[in-house]
Amino acid sequence: MRINLPNIIGHRGAKDLAPENTIPSLEVSVEHNIKWVEVDVKISKDKIPFLLHDDLLDRTTSGRGYPYNYLYKEILNLDAGSWFNKKFSNTYPPTLKEVLIFCSSKRIGLNIELKPNKGKERINVNAISSLMKKNKFSVQYYFSSFDYFSLKLMRRKMPNATLGYLINNFDEKKLTSILEDCLNLHCFSIGFNINIINRTLVKNCKEKNFLVTVYSNNNIEYRTAVDLWAIGVDSIFVDNPAYYKKMLDNS
After folding, report:
1. Furthest-apart CA pair in the chain: how many Å?
2. Whole-angstrom Cα distance, residue 251 to residue 249?
3. Between 100 and which of 117, 137, 143, 170 could a Cys-Cys bridge form, CB atoms 3.0 to 4.6 Å apart?
4. pLDDT tens, position by position, for the chain (251 residues)?
5. Cβ distance 44 to 70 under 8 Å?
6. Pick from 188, 178, 180: which is nearest to 155 by CA?
7. Which stretch of DSSP H or E encloses residue 128?
């Protein structure tokens, strides 16, 4: 079944309003009527998928080093909120299972980004696909990644999975091969860095029936979003949904 994405997707929950990739960030998204959220997933030493964006724990938790050197029971005790605001000091890095249960209860869709842990891609995909197969979550979801290998692995593990390829930068001469790769993998979407998106790029993707998403390192302002939708972009990832309050309230 083809997924129809909304115009606005919460980036790491609502990362400008609460600590990214945490339950409070997802709760804030729901409060702002966000219908889909994106999260980043890594695995612990005992192969439990949990939310984390960076290669290291350092920036967004009280932990240090690589997450795969820690059991999840150790990660669970980390402070994942004080770096953002002291009022979030009791916030922890949640498991993907907990997030899927949350999204199911709130009836919001979930974009699960497979982070390219070098050398851990297969373990990552195995752990995440095993979780999805063993549990029935009443939530729409799709997997995305900058790492094509991870998407290939997920396609093998979950033949019916919905996949999206993410592209940070590229040579336009390679667009044809990128589109062919995505067609071969039966991706449904391609996500681009806002710095490389243009009307021609969107047109080429749409001709191959791909949905087009756009992300940025900073919150995408409403006026910019309107311009992106005007050239055919389907969805944008936003850090601060408050900028889209009127639109979200009417959705």
Report:
1. 49
2. 6
3. 137
4. 678 899 999 999 999 999 999 999 999 999 999 999 999 999 999 999 999 999 999 999 999 999 999 999 999 999 999 999 999 999 999 999 999 999 999 999 999 999 877 788 999 999 999 999 999 899 999 999 999 999 999 999 999 999 999 999 877 768 889 999 999 999 999 999 999 999 999 999 999 999 999 999 999 999 999 999 999 999 999 999 999 988 888 77
5. yes
6. 188
7. helix 121-134
